[in-house]
Amino acid sequence: MRQKIIAVSACLLGHKVRYDGAHQMQPLIISSLAEEFKLLAVCPEMEIGLGVPRAKIELLKKAQQTRVLSTQEPVVDLTQTLQNFAEEFLNSANISGFILKDKSPSCGVGNCKIKDSDGKIQTNGTGVFAASILQLKPNMPLLQSDKVTDKQAFQSFIKQVRVYDD
User: What is the dihedral sign for C-alpha 146, 71, 120, 132?
Assistant: First the structure.
């Protein structure tokens, strides 16, 4: 039986890939999962060519669609590039689950800052990479990094990964 793969936001594994050159390492992920699962680091922003350090990106809700834009001039719409990467990533590896960085305009689910068409900031956005994963693989086990220390949520995620079969 092959070892199941969990894709993890690279910053959570200690990789210095955040926009500011920092990481958000969560040792619990490695100590709890590395024996049973293969952990595959992924940083969608790095994978689409954004460097470190880099300008922040932001979410904008426009005509019922969420777009991800660079914050430096000239403003670049990165939405399609992130969506394409999500599809390529899913096709390139046999992933059984994701642990993604919460509040990230790429990886956050339901807790990201997003500007509406009036420029007002909401906090219920979903990052474009994460939204693409959820659309392409709606049954894929997914855990946000803010839930890693929630023992019940973490154990539930592990159980889901163990039984997930694409």
Answer: negative
Distance CA 86, CA 90 (A): 6
pLDDT score for 69: 93
Handedness of CA 64, 68, 71, 72 (dihedral sign): negative
Give me 144's structure tokens: 């946000």
Residues whose CB is less than 8 angstroms from the CB of residue 95 and which lie 6 or more positions away in sequence, other chains included: 5, 6, 7, 40, 89, 140
Q: Which amino acid is at 29?
A: I
Strand duo 65-70 + 57-62: pairing: antiparallel
Question: How many residues belong to the chain?
Answer: 166
Amino acid (one-letter) located at 140: M
Domain boundaries, the chain: 5-163
Q: What is residue 111's predicted lDDT score, i.e. its pLDDT?
A: 95
Tell me how far apart the 2 most distant CA atoms of the chain are, in Å: 52
- Give the global pTM: 0.95
| Segment-wise mean pLDDT, segments of 10 residues, the chain, 166 residues | 91 96 95 95 97 93 89 91 97 95 96 89 93 96 97 97 88
